[in-house]
Amino acid sequence: MSRRSGILEFAVLGLLRESPMHGYELRKRLNTSLGVFRAFSYGTLYPCLKTLVANGWLIEESGGAREEALAAPLAGRRAKIVYRLTAEGKEHFEELLSQTGPDAYEDEHFAARFAFFGQTSRDVRMRVLEGRRSRLEDRLEKMRASLARTRERLDDYTLELQRHGMESVEREVRWLNELIETERAGRDQRRPDSDGSAQQDSTSGESGGLPRHGDSTRPDPSDDTAT
After folding, report:
1. Contact 197/117 with Cβ under 8 angstroms?
2. Is the separation of the CB atoms in 1 and 51 below 8 Å?
3. C-alpha–C-alpha distance, residues 170 and 219, integer Å
4. What is the pTM of this model?
5. Which residues contact residue 44 at a Cβ distance below 8 angstroms, ignoring those fewer than 6 apart?
6. Could you say which DSSP state residue 79 is in?
7. Sign of the alpha-carbon torsion through 27, 29, 34, 39
8. Residue 104 per-residue DSSP state
9. Long-range contacts of 56-62, Cβ-Cβ distance < 8 Å, separation of 24 or more
10. Which InterPro entries match (predicted)?
């Protein structure tokens, strides 16, 4: 399985965990909710759905009696197929959510993982965020070293492009720092009260109180300028 198809399968399972959907609805949600899938075709989605069905992680169902009645008078028109997550599919998705290996830090995969942080445990969120930050800090160090070596040989426009790329990475590192601090603050809230009772369990998939910004300065993890 390619990395790209693996990310798509992960995203499809995550969306169908929320509710069953038609293929068209899935494609729309992938386009609008997950930036990493801004542009992809039905020719990419449907083979993925067929693979997930073959693996037993999804089942295909009829779109319902009302849609069948509407489709029947139209020659050659079939009722829409609804895709539903199976128990095995839910278990597989939860297993994927728990993984915190290097793939989780890569640009495209991180964007998809972050979109489902609401369903991810706090400890896993922390490991993914810290791994992503470490990956970007390494990238930033290499970019700075490269710029220092080549600065004298670059024209003004190429130099400005490299600076823009560095600023994008720096902005995402600052954003990750904010998220990590928020997660840590939420974890601290789990300490017992003075009467010995524990506070709300924050290992569930609750958001942990993400920082809210009045503007739209939060970086898009799938932004090509951060690569």
Report:
1. no
2. no
3. 10
4. 0.74
5. 8
6. P
7. positive
8. G
9. 56/86, 56/88, 56/89, 57/13, 57/85, 57/86, 57/88, 57/89, 57/92, 57/93, 58/13, 58/16, 58/83, 58/84, 58/85, 58/86, 58/89, 59/83, 59/84, 59/86, 61/20
10. Metal_resp_DNA-bind_regulator, Tscrpt_reg_PadR_N, WH-like_DNA-bd_sf, WH_DNA-bd_sf
Phi then psi for 81, rounded to 5 degrees? -95, 135
Among residues 21, 96, 91, 11, the alpha carbon closest in space to that of 56 is found at 91
Residue carrying structure tokens 């003004």: 156
Q: Is 35 exposed, middle or buried (0-12, 13-18, 19+ CB in 10 A)?
A: middle
CA dist., res. 221 & res. 218, Å (int): 9
Given the candidates 3.40.720.10, 1.10.10.10, 1.20.1260.10, 3.40.50.12780, the CATH classification of the domain at 1-63+79-118 is: 1.10.10.10
Q: What is the pLDDT of residues 52-100, one digit of tens each?
A: 999 999 999 986 644 444 444 444 445 589 999 999 999 999 999 999 9
